[in-house]
Design brief:
Layout (H helix, E strand, L loop, with lengths): L1 H20 L13 H23 L3 H23 L12 H11 L3 H29 L2 H22 L2
Length: 164
Amino acid sequence: MLRRHAIATVAGIATYPLLMRSAAAQTAASSGMSALSQRILAASTFATTSSQLALTKAESPIVKVFAKFEVAEQESILRATQLAGITVPQSVQLDSEQAQMLQQLQGLSNAEFDRMYVRGQLAGHQELLTLHQRRLTAGTRDEQIISTIAVATIEQHIAMLQAQ
């Protein structure tokens, strides 16, 4: 199991530049997704990618456990989105802050990595919470269902991060 996570982490980190720069792949903007859904997808991609990185770079066992939970959360939301028939683009453009944070995280290790990762996850989760709460009233029925479930998990994760 750990071996699979290590392989997935390396694969995720190796494909990160492709996520950012793939001109040939379908992007969120060209998929017909709303601007709100595009922002949610970018924030989710940041949460997943940084958490995959944390699985190998974090020092604290608690941070590693959180990262594992986060990857699972984002994968389940993505699966639910696909099951609902909502098109998910093959690539996602992260905003400049997210891209910069990922780049900084790649250069850090141990406790220094842990501090920046937790700070980034807390900010990212607060953004995700706001976006999903907005989608509860502005989204399609299927998006509202997904956001209803996401909000509860995001609130739990914020509480966990604030306890760090």
